[in-house]
Amino acid sequence: MKTPTRSPRPPRPPRPRPPAPLRRPTPTQKSATPTPVAKDKVSLDADVKSSQQQMDDAGMSTEPAKLVEDGPIAGARDAQGALSEEAKKSPAEVLAEQAAALQHASGDMAALQKKALAALADARKDHVGKAGSQKKGMKQTEEEQRARPARTRRPCSMTPRRRSRSSSIRSPTRR
């Protein structure tokens, strides 16, 4: 009888390399600041005309609708008036306001980023410290648990012998 032979093992595939460490993102206030509106799109005249047309089509410019002093009809009329007032501003004035608003947003974003990075660093430091103390506490607890039975264990010669069940059972006596 012939002993069966094993086929050779196929070669192991190469181990995958560990991923490269993640690069910490560096947020910039420019990436979080909205993009400015182009100069040719600053005018609100087309929006005023479109809004007025929608109000006319809905019947909100009729005499009975003009008598309404509160509610959604009056709110829409007030919004139309505010839009008309904004549309009267010159494009240069609008662009100056936009530049000031973007500058303010950029400054706020820089301060926010500094606060966020500081909070993240504090959270990491706290977490690492707590994890280390928890690990130390677990290790001490395990060591204490191992040592506790060793302290309470008695030598074999001092342990009392147990009686077998058969010897402890007595037969009932008759009276």
The total beta strand count reads 0
Mean pLDDT: 77
Strand content: under 5%
Question: How many helix segments?
Answer: 6
How would you describe the shape?
A: elongated
Major beta-sheet overview: none
CA gyration radius, whole angstroms? 42 Å
Decide which structural class fits the backbone: mainly alpha
Helix content: 55-70%
Which stretches of 5+ consecutive residues score pLDDT under 50? none
Order of helices and strands: HHHHHH
Cα end-to-end separation: 79 Å
Q: What is this structure, in a nutshell?
A:
With 175 residues, the chain is mostly helical.
Descriptive account of the structure:
By secondary structure, this protein is mostly helical. Among the domains are: 42-88, no CATH class; 92-144. The chain has helices spanning 29-32, 45-57, 63-66, 72-87, 91-152, 165-168. Helix 2 (45-57) packs antiparallel against helix 4. The longest helix is centred in the C-terminal third of the chain and has 62 residues, at 91-152. The protein is elongated.
